């Protein structure tokens, strides 16, 4: 049974309270629905700001929503653990410097640094994203059809032994029991 924050606060009035007990649970643990909405809104505001010739106000709002959306989506502990890894320090620095430049009024340089930082931070997720997109119904068909077209050579190996010796000959013959047999031997089943 949960107690409301006000009753917890009243019952612990004589003892020391930690900061995590005073914060609402949604901020401490993260809420994916709210976080995804914040991230999506941040992306929309940033894109609209870029399309309106780098409108500073819209891009600032987009960055603030992005900053609020990341910890809400994956939680503050995971966010700090991911962004503060030593091998991701350069990418995190570029992202933070880009956000700072957008906030102080240099949106073109700020967005360039943000994009560089985001590509370095999340670049290893693009192959996973491609696999997920290829499994989606409509997008997967489009991605797979582009892969098959374009005049690329087929990757099927050729059986050169039979192609050189038996050019134009049919390799299938009809047996006595009315089933088709392959006259090429065991090598044909590997190709």
Could you please describe the fold and organization of this structure?
The chain is mainly α and 191 residues long. Among the domains are: 23-84; 86-135, no CATH class. It has 11 helices and 2 strands, in the order αααααααααααββ. The chain has a two-stranded antiparallel sheet with strand order 1-2. α4 (32-51) packs antiparallel against α5, α5 (56-74) packs across α6 (76-83) and α7 packs antiparallel against α8. The protein starts with a helix and ends in a 9-residue tail after the last strand.
Quick overview of this protein structure:
With 191 residues, the chain is mostly helical. About 3% of the residues have low confidence. It comes from Eucampia antarctica.
Question: Could you name the ranges where pLDDT drops below 50 across 5 or more consecutive residues?
Answer: 7-12
Please count the beta strands (DSSP E, at least 2 residues each).
2
Please give the order of strands in the largest beta sheet. Answer: 1-2
| Largest β-sheet summary | 2 strands, antiparallel
Structural class of the secondary structure composition?
mainly alpha
Mean pLDDT: 77
Encode the helix/strand succession as letters. HHHHHHHHHHHEE
Count of helical stretches:
11
Radius of gyration from the CA trace?
A: 30 Å
Percentage of residues in DSSP E strands = under 5%
The level of helicity is: 55-70%
- Spatial gap, N to C terminus: 65 Å
Basic shape:
globular
InterPro entries: Got1 (IPR045176), Vesicle_transpt_Got1/SFT2 (IPR007305)
Keywords: Golgi apparatus, Membrane, Transmembrane, Transmembrane helix
Transmembrane segments: 34-54, 60-77, 89-109, 115-133
Membrane topology: Multi-pass membrane protein
């Amino acid at each position: 049974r949960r107690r409301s924050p006000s009753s917890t606060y009243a019952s612990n009035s004589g003892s020391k309270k930690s900061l995590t007990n005073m914060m609402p649970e949604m901020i401490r643990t993260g809420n994916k629905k709210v976080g995804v909405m914040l991230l999506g809104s941040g992306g929309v505001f940033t894109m609209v700001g870029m399309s309106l010739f780098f409108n500073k106000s819209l891009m600032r709002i987009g960055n603030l929503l992005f900053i609020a959306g990341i910890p809400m989506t994956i939680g503050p502990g995971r966010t700090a653990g991911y962004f503060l890894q030593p091998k991701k320090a350069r990418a995190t620095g570029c992202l933070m410097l880009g956000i700072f430049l957008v906030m102080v009024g240099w949106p073109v340089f700020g967005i360039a640094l943000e994009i560089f930082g985001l590509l370095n931070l999340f670049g290893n997720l693009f192959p996973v994203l491609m696999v997920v997109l290829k499994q989606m119904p409509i997008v997967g068909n489009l991605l797979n059809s582009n892969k098959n077209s374009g005049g690329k050579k087929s990757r099927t190996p050729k059986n050169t032994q039979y192609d050189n010796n038996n050019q134009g000959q049919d390799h299938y013959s009809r047996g006595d029991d009315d089933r088709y047999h392959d006259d090429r031997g065991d090598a044909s089943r590997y190709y």
